[in-house]
Amino acid sequence: MSFAAGAGSINVDLLFEGMPRIPNEGEELFARGFSLQMGGGVPATLLNLSGLGVPVRILTGLGEDMFSEFARRKFDEFGATPYNLAEGESGIPLNITAAILTPNDRTFVSYTDGLNASADRVYEAAKGAKVVEMGRDYLPAYRKLKSEGTILVFDTGWDDDMSLDSYREYLELADYYTPNQKEALKITGTDNPSDAAKVLEQFFDRVIVKLDKDGCLIRENGRERVIANIPVVHRDSTGAGDAFLAGLMYGLYHDYSFEQSVLFGNITGGTCVTAVGCLSARLTESELLEKFKQYQHLLG
User: For the segment 36-48, what is each residue's pLDDT rounded down to a tens digit?
Assistant: First the structure.
């Protein structure tokens, strides 16, 4: 049976909502809202994708700590069974994050003991997948999967040291790369999304640069265009990138065109920002396809 897969640490978010500002040292401020939720990353992408009816294998780490128990309960609620790459290890293999949401932005403080897993283990669990989300680990596993015909989608977070040279092995291996605007400018050393897309074209036949609220810039066969976002009431952008990636992978998994797959990503990413948290506003497959019909005019 065909499936999608990815390996990465679970993120558990402590969300402090409605903060007027970040407190200074020695100060205490009370939030107007609080929730404990599953955060972003590879597991969140694949949980979104699972909700769209795609079989997934979530390769991650769970320990014996209280946050791992919370994550296990959440996986049960989502009807997903993760592959535990940290079985038998001590410590906290998850990323624990306190996220402070102010009127203008978000601030994070995180902790983890790290997830230690071999590339061989990741390859054996992901072998046979049609689409795999890549991270900045397990490069030997991705090479084997690519040689067997797996579609590789590379996604990263912000890195102060990101550059074409430091990411070259991943960029040369991946079929798709999904940076946001800030990441695309940083990694290419350019000052606008269009120039960044032209630089990335040396690695990819189909280039993606996410433009946040303005949609998604794509470049294919030397032709550049922007696919607009769907109209939504924005509440919180936490997890929007993971949700976008789930929609994109849904399209690739089902052999939709590049532009159609990006529109799926805009729909899932746009839906995500209407609620607080990474997985609070998920779509079913039928809901996604209905919205795809509704917004297909965005493709021109």
Answer: 988 889 999 999 9
